[in-house]
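Summary of Year 1 activities. Much of the first year was spent building the evaluation harness for sequence design. The harness presents a backbone, in tokenized form, and records the residue chosen at every position. We chose the following record to illustrate the format because it has been used consistently in internal testing since the harness was completed.
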């Protein structure tokens, strides 16, 4: 009953309600970033074979090029060979988060146009594609961080409460000392020693958040 009342109060706040709807739509779209914004075709028919480049990497030589490296589907020779021997379907936004548009006719950062709906950044990368991938990474990271740090904090608290005495005292003093350390400096030091990745940052932040 209390939950129903809280939901009703939340829904009456139109600004909060529509913000949640908008956030949910953007997050759902971001989960399919690879299918919406990608510099690789969704599907290719080439020499009577059906290929899925968005999920498998093919070489330049496979499509009649000269190099054994990953194929650039914006290359005119590759486009011509695929059109001659089949067809391909590109995503609605034919750019990934790190794709540099070398065929821009204007200086970067460029203004919005038909090709780049929100323009490009200073390196010529599509803003919409970067937003989609960024939303997915940020929200998933936040959800995982909250869930893992909460479980870790609950476990430590349960151990303190169950054993009590010296175990409780030692763990509590350790948490207080750890909490008093400047977390930003800890992150900077660790990042200078180890390569910052999604999982390494998640583990580091879990220790700082769960103790708080």
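For this record, the design step produced the sequence shown next.
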């Amino acid at each position: 009953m209390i939950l129903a009342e809280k939901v009703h109060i939340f829904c009456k706040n139109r600004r909060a309600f529509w913000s949640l709807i908008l956030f949910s739509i953007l997050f759902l779209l971001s989960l399919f970033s690879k299918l919406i914004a990608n510099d690789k075709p969704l599907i290719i028919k080439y020499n009577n074979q059906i290929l899925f480049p968005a999920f498998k990497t093919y070489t330049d030589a496979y499509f009649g090029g000269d190099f054994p490296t990953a194929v650039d589907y914006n290359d005119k020779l590759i486009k011509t060979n695929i059109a001659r021997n089949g067809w391909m379907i590109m995503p609605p936004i034919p750019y990934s988060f790190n794709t540099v548009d070398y065929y821009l006719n204007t200086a970067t950062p460029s203004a919005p146009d038909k090709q780049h709906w929100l323009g490009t950044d200073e390196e010529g990368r599509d803003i919409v594609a970067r937003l989609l991938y960024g939303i997915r990474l940020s929200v998933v990271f936040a959800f995982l961080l909250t869930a893992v740090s909460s479980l870790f904090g609950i476990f430590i608290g349960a151990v303190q409460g169950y054993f009590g005495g010296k175990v409780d005292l030692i763990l509590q003093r350790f948490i207080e000392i750890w909490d008093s350390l400047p977390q930003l400096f800890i992150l900077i030091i660790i990042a200078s020693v180890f390569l910052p990745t999604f999982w390494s940052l998640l583990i580091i932040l879990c220790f700082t958040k769960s103790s708080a």
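Residues 127-163 form the longest helix (37 residues). Quantitative recovery figures across the full test set are reported in Table 2.
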